[in-house]
């Protein structure tokens, strides 16, 4: 009786695992953030942002403040032993203020980039969704996971990771829409 139970268990396990293995071919993963950031449209939009007066001005301010901070740091390192406590405190306060200014400038730059990303997502969502739907049908994908929902997957496996293919198809769709 025990042998029959083991035999049936093995038989059922193997029967149920065959469809599971077969359906692995119908599973894919996409990284939507990478799609939205990697299209030609995104690249051009971010280039335009980085060439804008506002972005350049903020980046330049940040670099100037970074150089000032480095200068103060080097001065404290070099002359710190001979400086009065009051001078050290003043330099420390100036360094802290510069550091905070740099952080604020970086936040502004990141906010500009986040605004562009949000606009890109809004503008590209119809094309991306259309491309994804067509790809799911063409490849007979039963399950498409967002990469953010997974702990790990083989990013280099094109049978699983459809992100590069989607980027290519979205670029083609965007070019076709430009011609219209």
Description:
This protein has one domain (21-179). Helix content is 78%, strand content 4%. The chain contains six helices and two strands. The protein has helices at 2-23, 32-38, 40-51, 53-79, 85-139, 163-179; strands at residues 27-30, 143-146. Strands 1-2 form a two-stranded parallel sheet. Helix 5 (85-139) crosses helix 6. Residues 14-23 have low confidence and may be disordered.
Set down the secondary structure blueprint.
Layout: H1 2-23, E1 27-30, H2 32-38, H3 40-51, H4 53-79, H5 85-139, E2 143-146, H6 163-179
Parallel strand pairs: 1-2
Structural key phrases:
180 residues; 6 helices; two-stranded parallel ribbon; 2 strands; mainly alpha; elongated
Seen as an oligomer or otherwise, the chain set is: single chain
- Large-scale geometry: elongated
Give the rounded overall mean pLDDT: 85
Cα Rg: 28 Å
Number of helices: 6
Biggest beta-sheet profile: 2 strands, parallel
Q: Proportion of β residues?
A: under 5%
Number of domains: 1
